[in-house]
Amino acid sequence: MRNGVVLEIDDEVAVITINRPQARNALDLQSTDEFKTAVAKVENEDSVRAVVLTGAGGVFCSGADLREMADKGAVYKAWAGADGPLAKRCLKPVIAAVEGYAVAGGLGVALWADLRVADSTAVFGVFCRRFGIPMSDGTPTRLPKVIGRAGALDMLLTGRSVNTDEAFRIGLVDRVTSPGETLRAAKILAREIATFPNLAMLADRTACWQAFDLDEASALLSEERGAQAAKASEAAAGAVKFKDGMGRGGSPRT
Q1: Of 37, 207, 223, 245, which is most buried by a Cβ count within 10 Å?
Q2: 144/121 Cα distance (integer angstroms)
Q3: Are 163 and 123 in contact (CB under 8 A)?
Q4: pLDDT digits over 125-154, tens only?
Q5: What is the rounded distance in angstroms from the CA atom of residue 136 to the CA atom of residue 227?
Q6: CA-CA distance, 194 to 205, in Å (whole number)?
Q7: How far apart are CA 179 and CA 45, in angstroms?
Q8: Which residues contact 241 (CB under 8 A, 6 or more apart)?
Q9: Quick one: what percent of the chain has pLDDT higher than 90?
Q10: Residue 123 forms beta bridges with which residues?
């Protein structure tokens, strides 16, 4: 499998894999563009009825590539906001198969999915809190709608890690599998969804999202605007701290 974001289509199910193991599947600028392109291809492929989103090598996604930010001065546009890869829901149902870290922007990627399947190795968290990197990936807008405002504020303000058991209890994870079985389970679920008459399923899915998200686009734009000041000042310094070894292993400060 090539390095980057890989799209594979198997009949009615598409699998999008983030494959950057050298960076714990953090998305750099190129792979962010590849992610957006893969989603567009899935949406334009009539045969695809459901999508599985996963990360290679036992890690889902650890967010934006802060080393690229530190070394190259890369400027990341909001992954949500006006036109980022997470700005709009995919036109097809998406199931995230989560192993290992789904943190920082990786949490936003997981929240972009309709459903989340995880095993006992999964870890969720706003780990970028310690680096001064704002969450302009949809997390501040979508997380409260999934787990409630109080739980979302707890995660957003503390940057603490949330394991699979807690994630399932609070509704962040929908299904728990045995270790190493998340991708298989997600594919089975995707194929089950794909067997239903498509128009009715998509209509009900749209109505369900609209029950909460009629003004999500405005909320995401507000989230993007609110992140600009932090990106201009704290984020660059935080990226250097990350590169120098601060905050590894989920510790909020060291």
Answers
A1: 223
A2: 23
A3: yes
A4: 998 888 788 888 899 999 999 999 999 999
A5: 6
A6: 13
A7: 32
A8: 131, 247
A9: 63
A10: 101, 163
Relative to beta strand 123-125, strand 101-103 is: parallel
Name the amino acid, one letter, at 116: R
The H or E element spanning position 98 is strand 94-98
- Identify any residues that bridge with 15 across adjacent strands, giving them in sequence order: 8, 52
- Burial string for 168-197 (b: 16+ CB within 10 Å, else e) reads bebebbbbbbeeeebbebbbbbbbebbeee
User: Could you give the percent of the chain with pLDDT greater than 70?
Assistant: 83
Interstrand relation of 123-125 and 162-163 (parallel, antiparallel or unpaired)? antiparallel
**So what's the pLDDT on residue 144?**
95
Give the side-chain half-sphere CA count within 13 A for 88: 10
Token pair, residue 158, equals: 């503390």
Q: What's the DSSP call for residue 61?
A: B
50 pairs with which residues across the strands? 13
Report the alpha-carbon distance of residue 230 to residue 84 in Å, rounded: 18
Locate tokens 């809190």: which residue? 129
So what's the pLDDT on residue 212? Answer: 76
- Give the residue-averaged pLDDT of 1-11: 93
Q: Which two tokens stand for residue 141?
A: 């807008």
The CATH label, of 3.40.1050.10, 3.40.50.300, 3.90.226.10, 2.60.40.1940, for the domain at 4-179+217-248 is 3.90.226.10
**Best CA proximity match to 159, nearest among 129, 115, 193, 198:** 129
